[in-house]
């Protein structure tokens, strides 16, 4: 939702990755943003204004001396564009344009607009490795970072020359995710630290076999995105996930419940919020076999299981209040007596809120893209949400967390 109605200024400079900027423009438009595109002269050698006009349904700008029409009025293009923008993204940004931005040159529309633009700047460099690694470029990157610009990429991979190295433009989806993160910086969770657990833990039986569950981690990843979009610094402690982790989220990858427990406690200091969305195995095999278990002639195999630590309950009880995150939220995935079980869990784990979902419902819960949940607060307040995409459920949960923090 964060891109809905936002004005994004998209600068495109002259590199082969310019063709991917068309995909970025399209994704931004699909996310509800109004996208104004500036092409440098070199960019027009790779892509045409018509490409971007077709995607954004808006005039594309190339000339520093041009006037632009706003309603009835004629305005100086770069001043008008700079004033209107919520975010200025330059993708791809070449070594040449990085230098121009660092030095504040205004000899073309992109440079002049950047000098006039108070909006945050997001840069997605693309160039050959030796250009990226050159001390001159690195100096420009440092200057721009010090001035508050955010960089996404460049990534490692195949470059235009065919060589392998660092210098590929970040993928359009990664740039979009970073745009969301930058736009959210002054949101309701600004300066808050949020730790989220996600994924289904793997409990080893032997070196090749594990006990696990059907969790995809989608809900936890959506929560991490929503908290990031609300301005929080997010750490996602996750067991294996069926979806990638988007940009702007710090990750700690774990496998078992014990590893997840230790990772959560290692980052708990100064944490404001903990959201436990992981499907943590309640039990693990008592002794994971060192060698692969052989079936031999046996018709039956008994595995002794022992209890795993309850991460949320331990965090909630953590040195009784002093170091406990101010808001602790859990999930209750239930197949029966949803409200009763969720309420009992909230009480025994000393949670501030629990998100209850009946995982027997078709199209909701484990592995699905949507979720139908009830938000239960410790003060008894209940909010029943309709079937919603997990991203929207996550936004509602994060909004509640913001309200709770505001009251403390
Ligand atoms: O007790 P149950 O597993 O149903 O509780 C669910 C909630 O507790 C979820 O938020 C889950 O992430 C968390 N949990 C945990 N550690 C466990 C078991 C569950 O943090 N060992």
Outline the structure in words.
Helix content is about 35%, strand content about 25%. It has 14 helices and 24 strands. It has helices at about 20-30, 45, 50-55, 75-85, 95-105, 110-115, 130-135, 135-145, 170-185, 220-230, 255-265, 310-315, 340-350, 390-405; strands spanning about 5-10, 35-40, 60, 65-70, 75, 85-95, 120-125, 150, 155-160, 165-170, 195-200, 205, 210, 235-240, 250-255, 275, 285, 305, 325-335, 355-360, 370, 375, 380-385, 390. The strands form seven sheets. The chain has an eight-stranded mixed sheet, sandwiched between helices. Helix 1 (about 20-30) runs parallel beside helix 3, helix 4 crosses helix 6 and helix 10 (about 220-230) packs across helix 14 (about 390-405). Bound molecules: cytidine-5'-monophosphate (C5P). Cytidine-5'-monophosphate binds next to helix 12 and strand 19.
């Amino acid at each position: 939702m964060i891109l809905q109605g936002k004005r994004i200024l998209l600068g495109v400079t002259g590199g082969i990755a310019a063709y991917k900027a068309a995909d970025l423009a399209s994704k931004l438009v699909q996310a509800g943003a109004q996208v104004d595109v500036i092409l440098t002269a070199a960019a027009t050698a790779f892509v045409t204004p018509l490409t971007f006009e077709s995607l954004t349904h808006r005039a594309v700008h190339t000339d520093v001396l041009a006037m632009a029409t706003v309603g009835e009025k004629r305005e100086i293009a770069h001043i008008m564009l700079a004033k209107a923008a919520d975010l200025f993204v330059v993708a791809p940004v070449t070594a040449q344009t990085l230098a121009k931005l660092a030095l504040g040159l205004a000899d073309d529309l992109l440079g002049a607009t950047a000098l006039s633009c108070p909006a945050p700047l997001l840069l997605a460099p693309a160039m050959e490795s030796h250009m990226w690694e050159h001390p001159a470029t690195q100096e420009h990157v440092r200057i721009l970072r010090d001035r508050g610009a955010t960089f996404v990429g460049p990534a490692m991979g195949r470059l235009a020359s065919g060589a392998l190295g660092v210098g590929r433009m970040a993928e359009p989806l990664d740039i979009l995710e970073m745009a969301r993160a930058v736009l959210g910086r002054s949101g309701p969770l600004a300066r808050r630290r949020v730790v989220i657990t996600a994924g289904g833990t793997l409990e080893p039986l032997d070196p090749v076999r594990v006990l696990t569950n059907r969790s995809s981690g989608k809900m936890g990843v959506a929560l991490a995105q929503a908290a990031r979009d609300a301005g929080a610094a997010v750490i996602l402690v996750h067991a294996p996930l069926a979806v990638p982790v988007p940009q702007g989220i710090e990750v700690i990858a774990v496998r078992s419940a014990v590893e997840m427990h230790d990772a959560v406690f290692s980052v708990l200091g100064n944490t404001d919020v903990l959201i436990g969305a992981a499907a943590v195995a309640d039990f693990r095999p008592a002794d994971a076999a060192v060698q692969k278990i052989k079936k031999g002639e046996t018709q039956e195999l008994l595995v002794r299981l022992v209890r795993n630590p309850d991460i949320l309950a331990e965090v909630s009880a953590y040195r009784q209040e002093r170091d406990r995150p101010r808001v602790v939220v859990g999930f209750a995935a239930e197949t029966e007596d949803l409200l009763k079980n969720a309420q009992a869990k909230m009480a025994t784990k000393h949670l501030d809120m629990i998100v209850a979902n009946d995982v027997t419902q078709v199209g909701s819960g484990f592995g699905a893209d949507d979720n139908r949940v009830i938000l239960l607060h410790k003060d008894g307040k209940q909010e029943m949400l309709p079937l919603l995409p997990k991203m929207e459920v996550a936004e509602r949960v994060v909004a509640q967390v913001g309200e709770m923090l505001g009251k403390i």
